[in-house]
UniProtKB/TrEMBL annotation:
PROSITE patterns to which the protein is assigned, alphabetical: NUDIX (PS51462)
HAMAP family: Idi
Organism from which the protein derives: Flavobacterium saliperosum
GO molecular function: isopentenyl-diphosphate delta-isomerase activity; metal ion binding
Protein name, entry field: Isopentenyl-diphosphate delta-isomerase
Keyword match Magnesium: yes
UniProt record, GO biological process: dimethylallyl diphosphate biosynthetic process; isopentenyl diphosphate biosynthetic process
Location of the Nudix hydrolase domain: 29-161
Keyword field: Cytoplasm, Isomerase, Isoprene biosynthesis, Magnesium, Manganese, Metal-binding
Length: 175
């Protein structure tokens, strides 16, 4: 299997090229990404624990799913595809906002992403893909915020950044 490319972008989210995913993370080049938050009717977030064999951030908790768009794929199409691949279900997604962040990992790689944050609603249990996901759980939004303050080392570096943006968005828009 050939390595997947990421879409290189400028700060206006205009495509400027393609690069293999690992190379983009080694060089900390700005690229397009997305993060999906799935909530249930109790306003709990479906969190996933990354698989133990992932090359970065194994066994850390993060949002429902996240990844990179493929060339020619809309943000919603990419989020829907990855949600199905990782969590085994689909639901209608809505794009909320986007922002740029840069987060280094302990292994020398760096995420430098223009991240499109999406939300969806679902009330059932996922059918997780063991190659991608170790475990999952529902957790109240405020409980995640508190746990992240008390146990920051069990969450992915990008989730801590994205969750802060997501939490303020929820406060401002009362979703």
């Amino acid at each position: 299997m050939t390595e997947e490319n990421v879409i290189l972008v400028n700060e206006k989210d205009e495509q400027i090229g393609l690069m293999p995913k690992l190379e983009a993370h080694e060089k900390a080049v700005l690229h397009r990404a997305f993060s999906v938050f799935v909530l249930n009717e109790k306003n709990e977030i479906m969190l996933q624990q990354r698989a133990h064999h992932k090359y970065h951030s194994p066994l850390l908790w993060t949002n429902t799913c996240c990844s990179h768009q493929r060339e020619g794929e809309s943000n919603i199409q990419a989020g829907t595809r990855r949600l199905r691949e990782e969590m085994g279900f689909t639901t209608e997604l809505k794009e909320l906002f986007s922002f740029i962040y840069k987060a280094p990992f302990d292994n020398g790689l760096t995420e430098h992403e223009l991240d499109h944050v999406m939300i969806g609603y679902y009330n059932e249990a996922p059918k997780i893909n063991d190659d991608e996901v170790e475990s999952w759980k529902w957790m109240a939004v405020d409980a995640v915020k508190l746990d992240m303050e008390q146990n920051p080392d069990i969450y992915t570096v990008w989730f801590k950044i994205i969750f802060d943006e997501f939490y303020h968005f929820l406060e401002d828009h009362k979703l």
